[in-house]
């Protein structure tokens, strides 16, 4: 199947109008029952949630969740109560979508308390809901390539559903093609839900290769993983793509909302 990169990008911004990241104003709460965030996230990470995020997981507003495109994205969050909160804040990984009208972010208790000044973490927890500002930052997984987990609903060798894990950089995967190793008859995959993609028509028997379309810079690029799945790929197995993603996609936001210019000051500035 032909590969039309430009068609996958809805917005191309000019260098004059873009910055590395936009600054968002919001309210944040924390998961009262931690297992709700660890196991029930809409991204589908399940019991891998804590490992992927080092316990710093979060549900995020529907706009940034983007029907699953935001799964795995990383954000730096800091609260704006100078009497209780430090200037650095905490880094969170998106593992769920948040549909609450009361808050924009629901984060793990570990990450929430990390926003507090030393000795005032419990006072911050008592607050429950706080005003925050946050910005997108690159995800970093030391010594980890992009990995894919074969989901249990897969039916080898012709139907594959896979979950993306350890996606680095500050970018989104907006398209995936799959083909047998050594062949060029590519077949498009589609997002099933959250971080899970699947083949919408029967695929060739393995071994299989993948190519990924990323948002990157002001436009996009594709990355080719030449050998991912062996002939005998199986549900429940995790496979190494052999590629690392370190790209940064530029964002389009008004000058007064550009975090590059406004994050450097103290909390609440």
From TrEMBL:
Record-linked InterPro entries = Expan_Lol_pI (IPR007118), Expansin/allergen_DPBB_dom (IPR007112), Expansin_CBD (IPR007117), Expansin_CBD_sf (IPR036749), RlpA-like_DPBB (IPR009009), RlpA-like_sf (IPR036908)
Q: Does the keyword Plastid apply?
A: no
Q: Which residues form the Expansin-like EG45 domain?
A: 40-144
Superkingdom, according to UniProt?
Eukaryota
Instruction: State the signal peptide span.
Output: 1-18
Which GO biological process annotations does it have?
Answer: anatomical structure morphogenesis
Per UniProt, which keywords does this protein have?
Answer: Signal
Domain Expansin-like CBD: start-end pairs = 158-241
Any one annotated GO CC term: plasmodesma
List all membrane-crossing ranges: none
Family statement: Belongs to the expansin family.
Q: What is this protein called?
A: Expansin-like A2
Q: Which organism is it from?
A: Cucurbita maxima
Lineage at the top is: Eukaryota, Viridiplantae, Streptophyta, Embryophyta, Tracheophyta
